[in-house]
Amino acid sequence: MKYLAFALPHLLIVALALWMYVRIRAMKQRQDALVKDLKGRHYWRINLARPAFFGRWMRLMAFEAKGVLIDDGEAFRIRGHWAKTGKAFESLVPKSGLKVEWLGNQSIKTGNIHWARLDTPKGQVLFTADTGWSAGPSREALCDIFRSAFPDYPLDEENTHDFALEKNPRSLGATVLFLGLMLFALLDSFVFSGYELTDAQLFSILRSPLTWLVASVGIATLAALCYRFFAAGRIPSRESMALALMLGAVSAGAALPVLKRVDQMLAGSVSEDHAYRLSGTYRLEPIDTTQGLPPLKFPRMRDYWEQWPDGSEHRIPLMHGPLGLWQLDHAKFDPPIVAFYEKKSSKPGKH
Asked: Residue 276 CB: number of other CB atoms within 10 A?
């Protein structure tokens, strides 16, 4: 039963992916059949959707139909098949008085694809260049359609070039913040900080379901807020999503170093010596079990601890702040260990 509960979600995902593959393959075959009749004519493969389609959240594909946009001389002809029913449709759009508008990649609902809107006698329809399974080239491919089919449409610079992060103050600020948080997390943890979170407490934090629940909710909330902020600043949906996820991830990585710093400041960066008993080769257990002191392990200092008998007592400098973190004070803890290894390395025959 346990294995079934584990396997069932994966089987559902595989089944869903297979269903989507079969459905899109069938749509592609219908589109190929349309193209066979267009030898020697000017046409473009497109995906289509009706405006109301993007108002729905419960959908699996980013478009409603596959078809072709055909240049018929005095008019454009749109032919295709709807994905849900497989029903064929066709619309003739006169070039005189034609109304077309570039929409771009405005929202996450648009499937990370650049879209345009065209007025037809049957109502407005949204279309995008068919780039297969890859959404990356959609802007460039749609731009090619506009230059070829609608040469009089004034394309903005943002339509003809990939989005430049450095030209938008919000995306530039997000990039600087991302790099700053990443450098802080790395440098503060491994270079500048003289305090180290004990391994036992670190593993306890990472094993706790509450940690993962809070982290998941926090990252999702932060990413959603960042996405709305970036989208409101005219940053395309794709870049907004990428920046939001990057900030969410780096914030999660910087959370523990930030909490350590806050706990140090609240505790006044003052450590206290606590009595520990050596248990085994490099493991120390707290003598006072009422304070919640963590057990300590120093496997990389095996030689140092082997000089002491099992059961011997040692004073370990730890800082404990209001946030409940136990941090080893290396300024007090390291000197005798460094002296031991320096003395050991200076003995004749030791290299």
From this structure: 21
> In this structure, how many other beta carbons lie within 10 angstroms of the beta carbon of residue 217?
10
Long-range contact pairs involving 27-35 (C-beta distance under 8 Å, separation at least 24)? 27/65, 27/66, 27/81, 27/83, 28/66, 30/66, 30/80, 30/81, 30/86, 31/66, 31/67, 31/68, 31/80, 31/81, 31/130, 34/67, 34/68, 34/79, 34/80, 35/68
Residue 234 DSSP code: T
Q: Cβ(278)–Cβ(269) under 8 Å? A: no
Sequence letter at residue 82: W
Report the C-alpha gap between 246 and 189 in whole angstroms: 20
Residue of 124, 104, 106 whose CA lies nearest to 116: 104
Residue 104: pLDDT band by 50, 70, 90 thresholds? confident
Whether 78 contacts 48, CB under 8 Å: yes
The structure's pTM equals 0.68
Element (H, E) at 27: helix 2-36
Domains of the chain: 2-160 (2.30.29), 165-266 (no CATH), 272-346 (no CATH)
Residues β-bridged to residue 116? 102, 127
Contact by Cβ (8 Å): 228, 164: no
Q: Which residues contact 88 (CB under 8 A, 6 or more apart)?
A: 79, 80, 81
CB atoms < 10 A from the CB of 155, how many? 14
pLDDT digits (tens, 9 = 90+) for 166-212: 889 999 999 999 999 999 988 887 777 788 988 888 888 888 898 88
∠ CA 210-212-213 to the nearest 5 degrees? 60
- Whether 282 and 310 have beta carbons less than 8 Å apart is answered as no
CB count, 10 Å around CB of 48? 26
Q: How far apart are CA 274 and CA 322, in angstroms?
A: 17
Query: What is the pLDDT averaged over residues 83-91?
Result: 90
Which tokens hold the place of 213?
């629940």
Exposure string over 288-305, b if 16+ CB within 10 A, otherwise e: eeeeebbebbbeeeeebb
Q: What Å distances lie between residue 238 and 77, 158, 244, 256, 306, CA to CA?
A: 31, 14, 10, 29, 57
